[in-house]
Amino acid sequence: MIEISQLHKQYGPVQALRGIDLTVKEGERFGLIGPDGAGKTTLIRILATLLLADKGSASVAGWDVVRDFRTIRKHLGYMPGTFSLYQDLSIEENLRLFATIFGTRLEDNYNLIEGIYSQIEPFKHRRAGALSGGMKQKLALSCALIHRPRVLLLDEPTTGVDAVSRREFWDMLDALKAEGITVFVSTPYMDEAARCERVALIQEGTILQVDSPAAIKASFPFDLLAIRGADTYQLLQDLRTFPFAHRVFPFGESIHLTDRRNTAFPAEVADFLTARGHQQVEIERTGATIEDAFMELMGNMQSAVSPSTPSRS
Amino acid sequence: MNPNAIEVQSLTKQFGSFTAVNAISFEVAQGEIFGFLGANGAGKTTAIKILSGLLRPSSGKAQVAGYDIYRQTEQVKRHIGYMSQKFSLYGDLTVKENIWLYGGIYGIEPKVLRKKRDELIRRLHLEEVQDELVAGLPLGWRQKLAFSTALLHEPRIVFLDEPTGGVDPITRRQFWEMIYESAANGVTMFVTTHYMDEAEYCNRVSIMVDGRIEALGSPGQLKATYGAASMDEVFVRLARSHE
Questions:
Q1: How distant is the Cα of A262 from the closest Cα of chain B, in angstroms?
Q2: How confident is the model over A277-304, as a mean pLDDT?
Q3: ipTM
Q4: Which strand (E) or helix (H) includes residue B135?
Q5: CA B90 to chain centre
Q6: In the prediction, which pLDDT does A303 show?
Q7: DSSP letter at A265?
Q8: Is B170 in contact with A203 (Cβ distance < 8 A)?
Q9: Between chains, do B239 and A164 touch, taking CB under 8 Å as contact?
Q10: Which of A57, A90, A304, B123 is most deeply buried (CB count within 10 A of its CB)?
Q11: pLDDT recorded at residue A310
């Protein structure tokens, strides 16, 4: 449904995209996961036919993003990262405006947006500018769906939203799954990978890995130990001096340790920590999360640079 | 010196008929990392504005850094630092100019400030970009610089309002190490975040729901109380039960 080949984009000295290759299948929910500045918005804007790439090509539903941009726009729903509806129009007016632009009526595709729109319909005469963040999000999604697009592009729909609203948003996307709409969604929250069928991890304009979340976790090349103790900060400092430490990262209430020898030796780590005065240390083997995988890949990318020196680009 | 950096009793703020902050009470110890969580619209921002001397409460008591938030707002402002992801540094000023500006606002003597500035630039490895505009720096660098700048005048408390949004996971962790380090030096860290794993890094966490503090305790205590495996679960359970 989406084909991207060797896409490059540069802004002045900044290389936003450095040769992106991706394929998204029809009906798939595909997540583009990476921090700010990784190139997510640039990529989505190129797919939305709003920005031209410097090199490479991309197509949506078989149409080329440059040559066939008019056709693509008819079949595309796009929700930009910042709220872009008309603040001085009401909920209903915004929705009818978008319907008219796409040559349809609110009533024609009402069943598609009903689950989302019914939650804000009681306030349909309220101006969009006066809505809460969660309501704006529901309106924006309704507007992006009003013409029953084949592909939905969502640029960081959950950024700045609290943990509860984030879950609700993904639940709304679940409900769309049955409609067969392909969803391409970007997010800086690594834990949201679990809500996608496949994800691409992106950093500094480069795709680090593309696969299902389960496969990415399974491909993590190290045994991982989760270590807990009374003084997490001291534990962190000491684990960094463990002679076989590959990477040491705080992870919620525990610390994740990978061993340079690829295999974990929990007893050895326990002895090492006991010798340094740590008491009641809990050590257990744990599975890698998407964030572990991302940091490992990211670390390999900048391994030439020492960890305390910030990488630039 | 008062051992508590922040003391709040029945603090309330009403806007017309809407009660944004509803009789909240809590204390934060000096050097503590305190997580201040809540859903959007729960009243966090209003509470932070009151505690930083920018907004007068409707009723209740609060002391910040030992100063009264009704009568001594100027003293409060002098003894706190503030950093948010949305606004911290001026993008069209250089690294050096930003530090100079903030130091000047807090009344640090030029001689002292010059020394502090050079030290800070060295510590953050920013020597090569010290004369470049902040807007051109990677987000992670900007955030570390903003944090250090907020500490320049040696405040007793720093308010960190979603300091890590959108940052890559490695930089996010490096940032938290700076928080740990400053807390170990006795500076109180008052942090809001949407990342629930970061709630686990706090000594204690409060969760605001509809203007009230619905839960307060160490992450371990809260998880035990609510029979939850993670802070994310605790948060979702509390915030959802009030819809």
A1: 21
A2: 87
A3: 0.80
A4: none
A5: 19
A6: 52
A7: -
A8: no
A9: yes
A10: A90
A11: 45
B234: three-class secondary structure by DSSP: helix
Using the predicted structure, report yes or no on whether residue A101 has a pLDDT greater than 90: yes
Cα separation of B21 and B132, whole Å? 42
Q: Identify which of A35, A309, A312 has the shortest CB distance to residue B168.
A: A35
Average pLDDT on A225-240 reads: 90
Q: How far is CA A72 from CA A63, A75, A272, in A?
A: 7, 5, 60
Using the 8-state DSSP alphabet, how is residue B94 labeled? Answer: B
Helix (H, G, I), strand (E, B) or coil at A214: helix
First-last CA distance in chain A:
31
Cross-chain residue pair B170–A295, CB shorter than 8 Å: yes
Averaging pLDDT over each range in A29-33, A118-122, A221-225, B165-169, which range is the top one? A29-33
Residues of chain B falling short of pLDDT 50: 243
What does pLDDT average to over chain A?
Answer: 90
Give the one of B167, B194, B230 whose C-beta lies nearest to A35's C-beta: B167
pTM: 0.85
Tokens 């639940």 correspond to A171
Chain B residue at shortest CA distance from A164:
B236
| Residues of chain A neighbouring B162 (CB-CB closer than 8 A) | 160
Q: Which residues of B touch A310 (CB under 8 A)?
A: 125, 138, 140-141, 144, 171
Cβ-nearest to B235 among A163, A252, A308: A163
Which residues lie below 8 Å from residue A166, measured CB to CB, with a gap of 6+?
A158, A189, A192, B194
Q: Residue A84: pLDDT above 80?
A: yes
